[in-house]
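yo, Dehydrogenase is done. seq:
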Amino acid sequence: MMNSEDLRDKRREFLKSSALIAGGVLLNQFAFAGGHSSTDDTIKIALIGCGDRGTGAAFQALSTTANVKLVAMADAFQDRMDNSYKVLSDKFKEKVDVPKERRFIGFDAYQKAIALADVVLLVTPPGFRPMHFEEAVKQGKHVFMEKPVAVDAPGIRRVLAAAEIAKQKKLNVVVGLQRRYQANYRETMKRIQDGAIGDIYSGQVYWNSGGVWVKKRQPQQTEMEYQMRNWYYFNWLCGDHIVEQHVHNIDIANWIKGSYPVSVQGTGSRAWRTGKDYGEIYDNHAVELTYADGAVIYSQCRHFEGTENRVDESFQGTKGRTYLSAGNHGVLWDHKGNEIFSHPTKGNKNPYQTEHDELFAAIAKGEFKFSDAERGAKSCFTAIIGRYATYSGQTIKWDEALKAENSLFPDQLSWTANPKLMPDANGLYPVPTPGKTKVI
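structure:
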């Protein structure tokens, strides 16, 4: 067994070697400028995206048992930076060392912060994720990145390419699809994969809720700032709620099948959320995910106030069925209705914390253990294809969709530049129309 000094040496070498290109060639000097010090075993963290979820991710990273320190922060907005810094520095006085010169603001802030860390937390609106992940891998950093990892096919291709390089460099990458780190899902899935309910031939996955926040347009805001503040309602930033939120449940469908759909078809609309504050996205999607073996899994998500909420997953197999939910439920029955497994609902660890605990434990030990980016990207792409299907009213095939070139990202990033989607004279945005909208 290694003693603590041996572990520190192994970790130092691991973090240093992670900044090398496969084959032993060093990255440029700037990329390695923030590399791990050979005389300090502290794992240095940079937070990219200082909103509520970013602050939460940093809170979880700093709550691990590893020797960690937050050394850099980046965001597009000063007020979000200031609030996040105050919350984190008040809670973790000894673990937050981010003087003003290491609190970077602007569209290029991420590059400066990434250079100073061993591990980066990528928690901006997801439209920025591909270029941030690409940069983190280029600079040889370990990564925690929130889902979704992209909002369109070009973004997914960038993430998949960077994921391959991350594996070559032995960079740990954890994606915030936290059900993969939740005890009831892990224990139930083990039994399903061992054949407890046979081959899965159908299923149903849901995220039905009342919706999320809205940020009102403020006087003097440019269109770029308004859309970034109200990012949930614009696809170049969010991807629609089927991508941003329902991806959690769709990921479970892919996990239980051990594969990804070959085609998707479905329907959706704006039935409740129709005003100009809601950008372009739908408030309901219902799609069918068809897999290569003929299995079909039904996926439904909606944001309707005053209606029944449902966030869970059910699947049927040739020998039985299962029910899962984020509320720690994990149950298996045979075809006669006999319960064959039930996971306890109390005493389970918070999966948001577990994903950070396991990531930082691996880094501290000098282990290459996590490469979530590929499967995270493919589950996100499943949800993106779902959006393509509901917006167009067409059956969308995986292979064809992945080749799509229609990037949603703005041609220029500046506060005075316009995003590709603009409102009309009444402040309303174009909304996709099935049968007319072209998505590929």
